[in-house]
């Protein structure tokens, strides 16, 4: 891939993976409303808003592939999620179609599967069970990728990103954390692998306590380099407090599966 557009490249995940991608592409075009700050020699910034399809079409002119990481990364009101995550993601794929871009990597989320029990080994072929409105918007994104593949031939690797905090800090993260290096490796597979059609994999590093069957990623050549336990904060190994609600301990989505009392279940931006 010569020129790659990275939506959300100024955000926490986008910024973290950029340094592992930069040597593997000719130009990394950061597409974001926010200033990314200091740029490497082969990085550029194109200020564009995913809610504006014409702006995105302009941003994607001449690119060879798109990595879509932009959007709201917290649980909030439905109107905002629909405007940014639902319509924004549709705009990215529509702009890719208009610009003649045939390969996309989509940043999906573990919250697509949050209502599976922790005792269930989940694979991407199983029905989606989103735990939040945010997770529901990621289901939409994966289905949007499918429609654009079937109708327009745009190939997509959807990566259900696990916990992307700087370090794993709780028991849940020990099963789903992903390092920037491993996530970048998956992204590059999505951009370059010749067998990508409309594939879904999990973005997770090595773990002794897996919740997901990631054989689909392994088949594409993904071999995570980082062991979750080696990066974890000491508190991650502590048992969950005795007063932790049963629903939190039972489901993979943890606290995001709880009923809402104030209208919103808050989602940390790195979960």
TrEMBL record:
Keywords, alphabetical: NAD, Oxidoreductase
Pfam families named in the record: Epimerase
Positions in coiled-coil regions: none
Listed GO MF terms: oxidoreductase activity
Keyword Oxidoreductase: yes
InterPro entries: Epimerase_deHydtase (IPR001509), NAD(P)-bd_dom_sf (IPR036291)
Keyword Phosphoprotein: no
Domain NAD-dependent epimerase/dehydratase: 4-165
Family: Belongs to the NAD(P)-dependent epimerase/dehydratase family.
Listed name of the protein: NAD(P)-dependent oxidoreductase
Species this chain originates from: Rhizobium hidalgonense
Lineage: Bacteria, Pseudomonadati, Pseudomonadota, Alphaproteobacteria, Hyphomicrobiales
